[in-house]
Please model this.
Amino acid sequence: MTQVGYSKKVMDHFMNPRNVGVIENPDGYGKVGNPVCGDVMEIFIKVHNNIITDIKFRTFGCGSAIATSSMVTELAKGKTLDEALRLTRKDVADELDGLPPQKMHCSNLAADALHAAIKNYQQKQKLK
Model:
């Protein structure tokens, strides 16, 4: 990945992403994409007693997209659903010590994918 002002944390999460993979039969699933840059993110969650107990991601995209996906999973794991829904795009970027302006949309996708997975879980609960 070309160095365009990435922080050490962004490079660490890109080179050593956390929580990569798929959860079979997830309690919640979210998928978002950006048609402009072509990035696609999927988030899978397991929930017990209203707490995200496991979370995985699969991302097709640039280094920033992978780093933000990794970071959002670390931020959300162990949080209640309400706490995780309050995680913002800015929270993700701030935890990575910032992103170059041209890559800020990646933090949007990561937070949006998390929120989509939680909303999917909540919709499933209403149907039970």
Remarks:
- The beta strands are 28-33, 40-48, 51-60.
